[in-house]
Amino acid sequence: VPMLYKNQSFDGYSWASAMAVQNLAGTDATVRVTYYPYNGGTSTTYLTSVGANSAVNIDQRYDPNLSAGSFGGSAIVESTTGEPISVLVNVRGNSGPSSDFFASYVGVPIQ
Question: What is the pTM of this model?
């Protein structure tokens, strides 16, 4: 996914994102999220379980694997156990005049 934010500020606006990760299979999945900061810093990884035919919300504001301050970057979201998954990202204003919804997009599969 190309655009994720945690308390990221641009010209007085603050942005945050969250991902809905859905497991499309009838068996549980282990999902790995590898975050890549825009500034070229060190990537970080987050693992979670997603039940069969279920979804989880991964909110970057509360992800302990991201810096305590802010994050701007991208991520690769993948099932480490082979189940098909889908990803929906919501980007919204976090505070100030940008505290409204901004955009939604679906993750793009890579093979």
Answer: 0.88
